[in-house]
Amino acid sequence: MEAELTSLLKEYGLNENEIKIFLYLVGNKELTAYTIAKETKIHRSTCYDILERLLSKGFVSIINKENKKYYYTNEISRVISQLKDKETILLSILPKLQNLEQKQETKVRILEDVEGQKQFNFDLFTRLKNKEISFCYMIGNTYASTLSSNIFIERLIKEIKSLKLNKRIEYKGIWDERFRNDKLISHYNNLGENRFLKNLPSKVGTIISDSFVAFLYTTDKPYVVEVKNKLIAEELKTYFENFWSMAKG
Question: What global pTM score does this model have?
Fold first, then answer.
């Protein structure tokens, strides 16, 4: 459990020492920086710097008692509420940025690393929410590169279902036969229909929609290449439909 938690906190953006101090504080109440440094065996000056970062990120709070500063962890719900405030601001900015992108007629974009894949998935969700796409076809990818990416995808799919956005879109997915019983793919069943083929390549996934296609690489360095071009999307849709006729439910 702690290893999984550490992995998720790393992907959130905390480094090893930040995680070490945060998890130590979770198991204790209010502590001074001196005590924290001593118990975690992290140099005192370094410990102060780390506590300041955890304060700024909302994971830790501080209280003064008898002229001493004591640190304690915030409830995760408080951290989430702060993130939600920031998310609201960013979502209000998003349409304006999209208008700028359209004016610039961007044709290709490359999104690097795990965060790039998450960004692409969120953008896809936003397009669906804004009724910008009517279908989404997927070929060959297994699942995202990390635990947090998989959790992020599951969350988006659940949100799509709860908002009944899946009724606005035609979803079809073709996967390699060996992933038939995969937990993540079972979530995609909530969007539409999945079929399977044997010996299907799975290191690069393809997503086809109304006016764009995207290629998702799940190699050591994951990234997404997105091409906004209606003609290419229509051509690949035809290829997909041929594969679809050969695949098994």
Answer: 0.62
